[in-house]
Amino acid sequence: MPFETPTPNEPDGTLQARTAFLVVQHKNGEWEALTDYVKPVTVEHTASVIEMKFGAGEVVSDIEASKQAAITAHQLMAMTAQMQQAAQNQSLVDSLKF
How far apart are CA 75 and CA 40, in angstroms? Predict the structure, then answer.
């Protein structure tokens, strides 16, 4: 992380970047990463280094939790499909016994 603010790349003060996101802490204490720069943001105070570190960590934790939830949901769907197939096979076996 640089210690100095980068010099803007454009005469109007615009910083040219490859990508960007904004981490905000809502009034209710929740942290969120935003990519929508159209919406104006009003802040109570300039973020401290500790707030930046904690907020970034919270966003990373949320991303990891979402990733794990998606993996779990996929595994449950696959298991459900296998169980349905097994039940159909058993039903066919049972009907052929008669």
Answer: 40
- DSSP SS3 for 76: helix
- Mean pLDDT score, 13-27: 88
- CA atoms in the 13 A half-sphere facing the CB of 5: 5
| 31 close to 59: Cβ distance less than 8 angstroms | yes
**Which residue blocks in 1-98 are alpha helix, DSSP H?**
49-97
Q: Give Cα separations from 84 to 38, 88, 98 (angstroms).
A: 48, 6, 22
Whole-number pLDDT of residue 12:
81
Q: What is the pTM of this model?
A: 0.59
Task: Write the burial class of residue 25 (CB in 10 Å: 0-12 exposed, 13-18 middle, 19+ buried).
Answer: middle
